[in-house]
Amino acid sequence: MKKIVLLFAIIAIGTSSFAQDVKYGIKGGLNLANFSGDDMKGDSKADIYFGGFMRMTLTEWLDFQPELVYSRQGSSNDSEGIDAKFKTNFLNIPLLMRAKMIGSDKLYAIAGPQIGIHLSSEYEEDGDTADLDKAMSVLDFSVALGLQYDLNKQFSIEARYNFGLTKIFDNDYYEIDAKNSVFQIGIAASF
Question: Structural domain boundaries of the chain?
Answer without folding.
Answer: 2-190
